[in-house]
Structures are given as C-alpha cells and as structure tokens.
Design a protein that fits this description.
3-stranded mixed beta sheet, SH3 type barrels, 5-stranded antiparallel beta sheet, 5 helices, 182 residues, GMP Synthetase, Chain A, domain 3, 2 domains, alpha+beta
Length: 182
C-alpha cells in the first residue's frame, strides 16, 4: 500500500473531524493488513479517549467507503491515541514537547551514531537539537527515521544542563502528559 497516496486525504478528513493525524502506518498482523492511525485533538489540550477514537473511526469509515472503496476491502482500520510514548513526526511536535526526553533513530549514521536519547531543545525549521549526555546534537528532520517521547526514562536519565536553561524560559508552553491517554 502506498501510504503517501492516502496520508494527505486522511489527514485532511481527520482535521474536519477535529483531530490531528500524528502518525500513520501500515502493519501486517498474521494474514491481516491494518492501517493504524494515531490521532490527537487539534487543540492538544486534552487526552484522546476511546470515544474520540470511535468518533474518528466512524467519520473516516463513511468517508473512505466513498473515496477509497477498494482500500477498505483490503485493509482494516485501527485508530488510537498517540499514548505516552507518542511518535514525533512533525517539527511542531518537537516544539510542543521541548524540554522532554525522546528516543530518536536516523536512517543513516550522523557522526557514527544512529540512535539518540536526549532532551528536546530548539526545534528549528530544518532540524531539532537534542541534549544527549551534556552535548548538543543537531539532527535534520529529513534524517529522522523514527522518534518517540521517552517518559518512562525521564526519571532515570541525568537532567539536561543546556536544554534546561532554555526550557525553564518556555516551561508554560511545554505540554506534560496527564497519563490519561487510552
């Protein structure tokens, strides 16, 4: 399945329903193919509930039956909240979660390293800066293969020194997880 073909139309339809498409993936589970969508509220001020997932599913299924009728015959649809270890797929996500810890993997090594675990610093238009072990590392978005928040590691990871100074200035803008995601 070509995810690029359905990504933009699904993203547009979810926006009409009041949701942001955080991530989209196609997975195989046994013989079944599943189109898995991770959604968030457009205002991102409240957690996604089971009722939200049902509403998004109902709105998408009716629309997909018209726009992509053969797709629904080939693949199942699964909608979920991004969860506490939410994927970071857009520059806005890095800005929203500045000061938080994330795990990030690049497609190709950068200075001999593909896996990073660091505190999110500045998220510019082309790259994000992470503080890993007291060192700032700039990672271009185009190099990122996958990235997720790492809330369960925050207590075990030495606190950032450089990013912390910038994060305290913008702490009102940092979104904290409520732990209520479904």
């Amino acid at each position: 399945m070509d995810l690029q073909k359905v990504h933009t139309p699904i993203e547009r339809q979810l926006r009409l329903l009041g949701f942001e498409l955080v991530s989209l993936e196609s997975v195989k589970e046994g013989r079944d193919s599943i189109l898995r969508l991770y959604i968030d509220h457009l205002d991102a001020q409240r957690p996604v509930t089971l009722d939200d997932c049902v509403a998004a599913n109902d709105g998408l299924v009716a629309w997909m039956d018209v726009e992509f009728p053969s797709l629904r015959e080939e693949i199942g649809l699964e909608i979920s909240s991004p969860g506490m270890e939410r994927p970071l797929t857009k520059p806005e996500h890095y800005r929203r979660f500045a000061g938080r810890l994330c795990r990030l993997q690049t497609a190709q090594p950068l200075d001999g390293q593909k896996r990073f675990k660091g505190w999110i610093g500045e998220a510019g238009p082309a790259a994000v800066t992470l503080e890993e072990d007291g060192t700032l590392k700039t990672i271009p978005y185009e190099s990122i293969q996958k990235a997720r928040l790492a809330p369960f590691d925050e207590g075990k990871t030495p606190k950032p020194r450089i990013v912390a100074m910038a994060a305290t200035d913008a702490s009102a803008a940092v979104e904290k997880s409520t732990g209520e995601e479904t």
